[in-house]
Design a protein that fits this description.
The protein is of the alpha+beta class. It is built from 5 helices and 6 strands, in the order H-H-H-H-E-E-E-E-H-E-E. The chain has a single domain, classed as Nuclear Transport Factor 2, Chain: A, CATH 3.10.450.
Length: 164
């Protein structure tokens, strides 16, 4: 038996679908969720050594506690991850705090590699840090997805001056 669809029935069905899509977008575009997704996608770009994609997440005004600007941090990431095979970045239980057009994502970050020698170094220098990393994101426009990384910090992480 075929049930004919009336104009009114089709209109209400379309309205219900539009309402569901609108609810999903409101949920997806919440600042906390956007910052969390941007951070996850930034990590995926680094893991895949896709430096062009990683650069898209970093704002032109980027400055970190180690004195790096946007170009310098990209150079350091390329250099540091060059020696890692199959890198993975894991951030358990991240916390996001939003204040209008600024958000701070914080979590301990664990870096893994399939190379045992690299893992010894990572466990000693990064994975054993007692303090979390903080990523400061800035929202550049009224678009809910327009967030750029402006600063990274970790008071316990030190980069030796002779490293680069």
């Amino acid at each position: 038996m075929i049930v004919p669809i009336s104009f009114r029935g089709g209109f209400y069905a379309g309205l219900a679908v539009a309402f569901c899509i609108a609810l999903y977008l409101v949920w997806l575009w919440q600042p906390e969720r956007q910052v969390q997704r941007h951070t996850e996608n930034f990590f995926h770009a680094i893991e895949h050594k896709n430096w062009a994609a990683a650069a898209d997440f970093i704002g032109s005004d980027y400055q970190d506690q180690w004195g790096d600007d946007r170009a310098r941090v990209l150079e350091r990431m390329r250099e540091g991850f060059r020696y890692l095979r199959g890198p993975r970045l894991i951030a358990p239980h991240p916390n996001v705090q939003v204040k209008t057009r600024r958000a701070v994502w914080s979590s301990k970050i664990m870096v893994y590699s399939t190379d045992d020698e690299a893992m010894e170094f990572l466990d000693e220098r990064v994975n054993s840090l007692p303090t979390p990393f903080e990523f400061e994101w800035h929202r550049l426009s009224g678009k809910p997805w327009d967030w750029k990384l402006a600063r990274v910090s970790n008071s316990a992480f030190e980069i030796p001056a002779d490293t680069y």
